[in-house]
């Protein structure tokens, strides 16, 4: 008797979320994946934020509600200066979870979790040497860690500390799916487009999707889209990458 291995995806939430909330926010995609017999695992980031860690003002009542709901989670502390970002705990948390619960066929990240997912995707075989490349990586409202390029006025570059982390492997077979909202104020579309282009440039497909790199734009803001007309083609690409029926 043969047993069928169920494909597994690891989900990484955004800033001021947790695994439970991300599960709810991504319910449209999650339910369609479940119908396709794909397992979705959601985990919490290692950072418990305090009010002083926020990059914006909020009142005490709202902050108390956030803490009570255990939504004061993140993968790393926010900073406008990319070279100051420290992902050590974030990467250790994810790689330890993968070692204990994997292997995983793919990873799905939103916002901060999408930036981290991009790095994990690029480095998975180094971070967990026994782990194969992901079959699929879904980057929702993702971004890279950039700074002004002193050699090209008005242009950006990946900050040196994370240049290797955001450099796609040229021989990678992982399908990369980018999703972003044109009305996103938290992570403007141009930041996700910059990240998209890093991958497109790595295989010479700037200006067009390829078989490996797919881009889905929606009219919304900083969110995981749940409308069927937007997410159905996304899920079809995921299922295709996983080889699921």
Automatic annotation (TrEMBL):
Q: Which PANTHER family match?
A: ESTERASE OVCA2, FAMILY OF SERINE HYDROLASES 1
Q: Which GO terms describe its cellular component?
A: cytoplasm; nucleus
Which GO terms are recorded in the biological process aspect for this UniProt protein? apoptotic process
Give the UniProt keywords, A-Z.
Hydrolase
What sections of the sequence does the record tag as coiled-coil? none
Q: InterPro entries, per this entry? A: AB_hydrolase_fold, FSH-like_dom, LovG
Q: Which GO molecular function terms does the record list?
A: phosphatidylcholine lysophospholipase activity
Top-level taxon of the source organism: Eukaryota
Task: Give one Pfam hit by family name.
Answer: FSH1
SUPFAM superfamilies in alphabetical order: alpha/beta-Hydrolases (SSF53474)
User: What protein is this chain from?
Assistant: Serine hydrolase domain-containing protein
In this chain the Serine hydrolase domain maps to 5-233
